Amino acid sequence: MKGEGAWPARRGPQGTDSEYLAGLRGRSPALALDPPALHTPPRRGPRTPGLRRTQPGLSKSCRGAFQSPRPSPKSGQADGASEDSLHLDIQKLKEKRDLLDKEITQLISEGYSVNELEDHISLLHEYNDIKDVGQMLLGKLAVIRGVTTKELYPEFGLDMND
């Protein structure tokens, strides 16, 4: 076996190993590792034109020019008008801030504390999370039984308005 490797050359549908490897020169290295049969794309059935989401081509909404949702300043509008508008917005925000400050002072004078209100809000969030889980479980049970969740409310003593 002079001049040959320790392994005899294989002969398959693509020819000998060396012929196969020579045909792969310049291709992806991954192809040299796996036989070509494994690289063929899966066959798909015929496409059904009725299942398309949109008609081919551009839709009517895509044919026109782009319109920004942000209004562009009018060319005839003076800078002073937009400045007046900004001052008016600032004034409205200051009035809202003053109103909220009065509301906070009133709540404090009635005996409410910020910590107590934060605790109350935290408990409300926890209640809502628990209620959401309960609603999810009722929904799953309704699906299993083949009924609506509304039909399960009396069985568990729940009020529809809760």
UniProtKB/TrEMBL annotation:
Record keyword ATP-binding present: no
One BP annotation, GO: double-strand break repair via homologous recombination
Disordered: region residues: 1-87
InterPro entries: DNA-repair_Swi5
Biased composition (Low complexity): 47-57
Ranges in a coiled coil: none
Gene Ontology CC terms: Swi5-Sfr1 complex; Swi5-Swi2 complex
Keywords of the record: DNA damage, DNA repair
One Pfam family in the UniProt entry: Swi5
Function text: Component of the SWI5-SFR1 complex, a complex required for double-strand break repair via homologous recombination.
Quaternary structure and partners: Component of the SWI5-SFR1 complex. Interacts with RAD51.
Protein name: DNA repair protein SWI5 homolog
Species of origin: Zalophus californianus
Gene of this entry: SWI5
